[in-house]
Amino acid sequence: MAAKNVNISRRQFLKASASAVVSLAVVGSVAYYFKDKSEVEKTGIIRPPGSREEKEFLFACIKCGLCVQICPIHAIKLADWDSGLSYGTPYIDTNVQACDYSCDAIQCAETCPTAAINFQLFKNAGNKAIEDLTKKYNGNLPKNVNPFKVQIIAMKNADRMGVAKIPDSKQCLAYQGNGYHGKLGKTHSLLRPPGKTERLYIDEVDVNKEICDLCVAYCPIEGAIKLKDLGDKKFLPEITDACVGCGVCQMLCPTDPKAIVVEPFKELVNA
Amino acid sequence: MSFIYDFITRDKKRKPLPAKDRSNLPFAKLGFSFKEWHDSHINTHKWRNRRWAFLIFINVLFIVSFAFDLSILEGSLSGSRLIGIYLMDPFNSAQELVIDNRVGYLAILTTNFWIGFFVIMTFYWLLGGRAFCSWVCPYHFFAEMGEKARAYFIKKKKIRDKTYDVTVKYVFWVGFLLLAFLTKQLVFENLNPVGILSRSLIYGPGLALIWVVALLLYEVFGIKRFWCRYVCPIGTTYSIIGDVSPIGVKFDLDKCGYCTDCQDVCLVPHELWFVKKGAATKEVHFTGGDCTKCGLCIDVCYGEALSFGFKAPSYILGGEVKEEKELHPLEVPDEEKK
Question: Would the pTM of this model clear 0.80, i.e. be above it?
């Protein structure tokens, strides 16, 4: 009798295990199929600064949302099923709220426990900048030089989330020779203008520009974008290699569709 | 593998103690009939109320921390930070480690990851493993409600209960780790109702909730507690550490009246196998790793035979526990009877 019971429970266990293995196989193949589908391809959808290459990012990110919590301007959101990204992973929609680096310390990267957003990258860059600075002055920093500012600038430039592009220059107001008068932006988004310490809501600020240069004037990275004079009252922003793809220009661009967009940077070099 | 199974079922494999006579049952000793004894007990739902309050408190703390930007309990149940101390979901961490070994990214994992992993493992080892399930997990809360709904439908004879072998959860546990290793992706986190629910509560609901609702409906109308009992690898991880945890629900055979009411309310009835007449193999039993330390059985027990207790190290390792019998105030010691 006892032996029979053992056989029944063993058979039951094997039956349950078999269904478990089958369901796991189904789940696994679905996951494997969707793995290549989740790529940041849409313009304006980028990963937070310092994110690993997409394939590495997918296994490094545990979807805890600590980066969402720490971001002072609420730029980072978690992907849902319909967003085309792997479920639960963080992204920045630069149309709505771009990262303006106004936390100064790349806090999302610092807070990430699994280094999916890799802080080491920024730390190394910052340390190297300070080292270079001390070398430059032979260890005696003049009082007017703030090493932290140098460090922050180096950290901001350490990684590229994407790169700004102008798909159709005819869309650009400056190219048409037009100015822009009105609110800085239509969305209730936060922005810290370069050189300022306080953040402002872009739909509460009026701007008057004879020639629209919002993307150039509010770019948080020095020397990333310049307004090129094409002559005949025509101007066009020119994006340099310094662009980190933060997307502030896309957020502020007043045209519809946006004349300047951020594309994910494909050849991310991670340390 | 079989030695692990032998270890987990070490108490069950012993020779059962002879069942107590009717005259030796606690109510008979006190001179009551079973009914009088049974009716004298008022269930105050002490532990259930405490547990629900704590579960809601923790999850509200998550929500409030995000909504009002407080640095109390940030993140979600997949990974969080409690006043600066990181806490990591153990199965997520295990998946990370499995994948990492293959691509050599282990060295880059932050110190915070290791702190979170070890803090949570130690914490739940001390507090009894699956205590997470009934005291923290938001999915459990809804599943517990679902269990009540299911009981209603069973009463109406719309559905019937059938139990399966719970050891299948180890197959899922190994399977999900293998999937993570093979696909280089946190496969389980895409299906994890705990994470989905936690994120939905904190960062706003999403389409992924459809999966959670589907699971809940299946638990009500399909297999009872399908996800929690047979699949959830987070619970299995906690179950493994909970089996050697120093805390458990203590069962005192001497005070037991064989009513098995505790098994009826238990969320994991197979853990209370020893309450049946003639099933106990020791004078004192502790529940094993699957016990969620919910306290429902303690609330319902008439004779106070069940209580939270500390296991002696020798018990954890499988040895016998010898304890002096505590006498009930109304009970006459054996020697005086003679």
Answer: yes
